[in-house]
Amino acid sequence: MDTGRLGRAAAVLAALLVAVSATAMTVPRPAVADDRDSGDGFLGGTVERVWDRLLDRDDDEEPDPDPDPDPDPGPGPEPPPPGDELPSSARVHWNGDFSTGSWSQWDSADDDCRPKDHAVVTSPRPPGFAYASRHTVTVDSTLGQSGTRCLVYNDPKSTVSDGKSHAYAGAEAWYEDWMLFPSDFAPAPGTDWNWVWQLHNWPDSNGPVNLVAGVITNSSDGGPSGGERLSLRIVGGASPANPIDGYGSGNYKQNPDVRERWLRGPNIERGRWYRMVVHVRWSRHAAGRVEYWLDGRRIGAHEGPNLFYHASGGGHASPDHAGQAYYSVGYYRSRDKRPPATVYHAGTRVHRP
User: Fold this and answer.
1) Distance of CA 13 to the CA centre of its chain
2) Rounded CA gap, 149 and 170, in Å?
3) 3-class secondary-structure state, position 201
4) Taking every pair of C-alpha atoms in the chain, what is the biggest distance, in angstroms?
5) What is the pTM (predicted TM-score) of this model?
6) What is the DSSP string of 248-265?
7) What class is the 93-352 domain?
8) What is the rounded distance in angstroms from the CA atom of residue 46 to the CA atom of residue 39?
9) Which of 141, 271, 281, 289 stands the most exposed, by the fewest C-beta atoms within 10 Å?
10) Distance between CA atoms of 45 and 161, rounded to whole angstroms?
11) Which has the closest alpha carbon to 87: 240, 269, 337, 277?
């Protein structure tokens, strides 16, 4: 060790000794009890640490001449791996992960959504995926609608088992989607109409959406108004005595045989990817089941109907008069003069047993 370092060590030691004693003395390297880390023996522990720092340092070690006062923390953690929400025995029924660089895996997209309002992008995207889909809503994103939206869809089919959504009476499926809310995302306030994910009822002339996830900013899901919770609503039921025919999204609660349930999720975090999986056993009866998972954690489950009884059996309803549902993602909110808002989706898939 060079003489300069010895001199600095001696100066620090002398200052410590002056603070605890008025008598000048020469102190050899102290031997301190093992309890110094507990804070006992102030002088011994302090001097020992000084000697450890200044004398026991490797001769070749030099301090950083210019430490970074605000080091870059690096990228945030990746989303957790899949949990038990998607069993290993499940197989992919349909893949809509935008890996073609377009919406070609989907049946359709909003024709009246302006091209600049939605696009397939390479950034941001979640780990393991090459693309994501951007959905931006403005006050004039769609015209002639009750709200503003930018959505992609899988269309219902006349033979229900032919649909990509696999959402009809007796079917079972796991619906996977990744979504991100950017740092400037501003949902419409005081409403449950900030929809980002749907399994939409069909025929859609009767009743509300069967399953819808959105950012809830009022108390519809049982949480406090003013929050921004990513919650899931389930609606189904009706009966031969009280079919869904003639009821719409504004008055379906007046049907005594319609059942509604909310699975309340957490407040959203902006700037990170969520992985959502919804497991559905489709039925218009009590045998229906829905489980809602977010990042591998089960938010909640519901036992009960998740399809509607249609008196006419019209549209593409199944033989027992149950409707079907079709898959849709994007962003859909009420029409107002709020600033534009964007939601990203990726990795959208349907799995089945």
Assistant:
1) 56
2) 31
3) strand
4) 103
5) 0.76
6) -TTTGGGSTTEEEEEE--
7) mainly beta
8) 9
9) 271
10) 76
11) 277
Question: Could you tell me the sign of the dihedral formed by the alpha carbons of 336, 337, 338, 341, in that order?
Answer: positive
pLDDT at 266: 98
Record the tokens describing residue 54, joined without a space. 């200044």
Q: Can you tell me which residue has the tokens 């109907």?
A: 305
Q: Where in the chain is the domain with CATH 2.60.120.200?
A: 93-352
Report the C-alpha gap between 328 and 91 in whole angstroms: 20
- Token pair, residue 294, equals 């977010």
Paired tokens of 147: 């709200």
Beta-ladder partners of 278: 175, 292
Could you identify the residue written with the tokens 């302090």?
A: 46
| Torsion angle defined by CA atoms of residues 24, 26, 31 and 33, in that order, rounded to the nearest 10 degrees | 0
Pairing of strands 211-216, 229-237: antiparallel
Q: For tokens 């829905």, name the residue.
A: 290
Handedness of CA 295, 298, 300, 303 (dihedral sign): positive
pLDDT one digit per residue (tens) for the chain, 353 residues: 455 544 554 554 454 444 434 433 343 433 333 332 333 333 334 334 333 433 333 334 333 333 333 333 333 344 444 456 899 999 999 999 999 999 999 999 886 667 778 899 999 999 999 999 999 998 877 665 678 889 999 999 988 999 999 999 999 999 999 999 999 999 999 999 999 999 999 998 899 999 999 999 999 999 999 999 999 999 999 999 999 999 999 999 999 999 999 999 999 999 999 999 999 999 999 999 999 999 999 999 999 999 999 998 655 556 689 999 999 999 999 887 788 999 999 999 999 99
CB 125 within 8 A of CB 347: no
Could you give the C-alpha distances from 9 to 61, 77, 170, in angstroms and in order? 16, 42, 80
Start-to-end CA span in the chain (Å): 71
Q: Name the E strands within the chain.
A: 91-96, 108-109, 118-121, 132-137, 147-153, 172-180, 194-202, 211-216, 229-237, 258-263, 273-281, 289-294, 297-303, 324-334, 341-352
Residue 110 · residue 145 · CB < 8 Å:
no
